[in-house]
């Protein structure tokens, strides 16, 4: 494990990283929110189906 090489890689990545614009952040938030809602709806649907099926 070469610590100097790892730290240099991390610093290089941080120098390339930039803060997203408001439009980019908004779009990413909408997509992530839609994904969370979709997974929640799928889980709720499975729960409802399983609760009505006979055991």
SSE map:
Blueprint: H1 3-16, H2 22-52
Folded structure, characterized:
With 55 residues, the chain is an all-alpha fold. The chain has helices at residues 3-16, 22-52. The model has no long low-confidence stretch (mean pLDDT 92).
Which descriptors apply to this entry?
mainly alpha; transmembrane helix; protein transmembrane transporter activity; protein transport; about 80% helix; membrane; Translocase_SecE/Sec61-g; about 55 residues; single chain
For the record, the CATH architecture stands as Up-down Bundle
**Coarse morphology:** elongated
Q: Care to count the β-strands?
A: 0
What would the CATH topology be? Answer: Single alpha-helices involved in coiled-coils or other helix-helix interfaces
> Would you tell me the overall average pLDDT?
92
Q: How far apart are the termini? A: 54 Å
Poorly predicted regions are none
Question: How many distinct helices?
Answer: 2
Structural class by secondary-structure content: mainly alpha
Instruction: Estimate the strand proportion.
Output: under 5%
**Total separate domains:** 1
Fraction of residues in H or I helices:
over 70%
- Output the radius of gyration: 21 Å
Task: Return the string of H and E elements.
Answer: HH
Protein name: Protein translocase subunit SecE
GO biological process, one term: protein targeting
Transmembrane segments: 31-53
Family: Belongs to the SecE/SEC61-gamma family.
